[in-house]
Amino acid sequence: MCFIFSLNRYLLLLKSKSCLPNSKSTMVRCFCGQMAIVRTAWTDKNPGRRFWGCPKEVSIDVDSTCGFVGWIDPQMCERSKSIIPGLLRSINKLKTEVGKLKEENQMFKYDIGKIKEEKSKLKLYLICSWVFFGFVFFLMK
Ligand SMILES: [Zn+2]
What we know:
Blueprint: H1 2-17, E1 37-42, E2 47-53, E3 69-71, H2 78-140
Antiparallel strand pairs: 1-2, 2-3
The structure holds zinc ion (ZN).
Protein name: GRF-type domain-containing protein
Transmembrane segments: 122-140
InterPro entries: Znf_GRF
């Protein structure tokens, strides 16, 4: 905790010298000695809060990072911490629904294509039948 606090003070010093994190000249190294990258935390405690983190891969199963965390953004107020996760869940739920609706839309487009194909076939059959009946009518005269 103390280390993170001193790291944050160090980062604040860096911020005052350059416009962190937009400046490409800011260099922060993680515990592995690699150039840290800007990541965004999406936990309930720190929703949307940016931090310097290890550039190694982070996946759900395996976390191969060195655990380096250097916060860029200040800690959020309790109200933000309570509201933002709910909003994020709503957004994710809506995104899921949009995905399902897009799939459904694709299926409807496919069905419409088939219906149009069938419509043009039926139109052709109708025209052929009119020609046939006209021909029969002509022969009966
Ligand atoms: Zn690292």
